[in-house]
Amino acid sequence: MSHRIVILGAGTGGTLTANRLRKAYGSDEATITVVDQDDQHVYQPGLLFVPFGLTHPEDIVRSRQRQLHKGIDYRQSPIDHVDLEADTVHLADGSTLGYDVLVVATGATLVPEETEGLAEWPPNVHTFYTVDGAARLEQALAELDGGRVVVNVVDMPIKCPVAPLEFCFLADWFFTDRGIRDRIQLTYVTPLDAAFTKPVAAATLGGMLDDRGIELVTEFNTGEVDGAGGKLVSYDEREVPFDLAVVIPLHGGQAYVGRSEGLGDELGFVPTDPATLQSTVKPNVFAIGDATTLPASKAGSVTHFEGDVLVENVRRFLAGQDLDATYDGHANCFIETGFGKAMLIDFNYDQEPVPGHFPAAVGLPLLKESRLNHLGKLMFQWFYWHALLPGRDIPGVGSHMPEAGKTTTPS
Amino acid sequence: MPTKTVTGVEVDVTDDGFFTNPDQWTEAMAPELAADEGIEPLTDQHWQVLRFMRSEYAEKGTGPTVRVLGKTSGVTVKELYQLFPKGPAKIAARIAGIPKPRGCI
Fold first, then answer.
1. Does a structural domain hold residue B18?
2. What is the tens place of the pLDDT at every residue in A5-25?
3. How many Å apart are CA B28 and CA A144, to the nearest integer?
4. What is the ipTM of this complex?
């Protein structure tokens, strides 16, 4: 009997899952159908570089369908809803897809309309979390010759929690390079009580903001972005003035999740077991990447490491076996720090980012700026299209977090 | 582990004042815990939030974030900040006797 596997979303998680499953099953053993609403696969780590003219929209967008291996069915349509009881996906074009296993990989979406004043995107308010937004910001930064630049995270969770900090570091470099750094006041405004979620890395990153003369405002819960008045206003009525604001809006799951009874939580994310990646809403529903409720960063590296476990557990589920593959929360991020350098952090559910080397004692330096890490970050785009999405393993990088090169190991 | 005495009863708390064992909490403790946060008296609307926090914790094993509270408790985020000015999710969790909300990473 041939299994019917339907994967919603053809981004990082959906694509690598589809390709790996296609290798795991012969064409007579399973049909694999992938659904997405458009054919624009964005290399999202590249968005950070667009506002500074370091890369361009056309260089980071490719066809979704072309990243999928032969023998995978691609359906381009918005999703109307999933009927969990009937194991059926209803597409916006009226057609339906029945499934034996459903994989939700539709990521997170931006919901600026949940913050007063943000949905209109006033002329002095920007974001780099979309291709169009990043391109619009590039123009604004090129024209800016002084003033207060504020980078604001409205609330967690957001995709790639280090990206807003990287933006600050790159902005410091960009304005220095243009010879106008002394006329720019840079401020990072976060709802967290420190620069980052994890204490050791937060201390390092906070120190790096300080070294660069970037002001840090913490525990700021943005209630309103007032473009005309040029200020952020928090719910507890504090204000941060700006001439140009770079705002990372609230995130949620995709709208169809909200329309699918029982599939998502209050924010539209799919409740998912953090070890097995099976959803807790129904056994034949799995989820990967930003679409889940996992207590891990919403980031491509997390999605990549989840892929191994997800594919193995889908295979086990369809074979009627217990799910015993487990994901440890492994995340790995290059943090661009400006001036041709970058830092690398590597962590999981239990182990926070610490200094050392990755993946072993001889390797890339961890939690420390270096040129090698910057090259690593640049090279990663090649790996993304040519190794990660096709479902190949990256040499020396497994899905579980390595401990060998770290200065402290999990207790 | 630190302890603190509320309504004459010793309870286990963390360094920043969150209950580690929600079963040690009783509704009678809430007014005293609220007063420690500078909130008195507790209104019906405060209680609506506190009871919601308790039931969410019982169901999900963690207290809700401010954003989820705003969407689901029947009290808007703006009102939540009026009720618990210095951070609704944390303050309400301390008064409701549940551990610090895990929030998001």
1. yes
2. 999 999 999 999 999 999 999
3. 58
4. 0.78
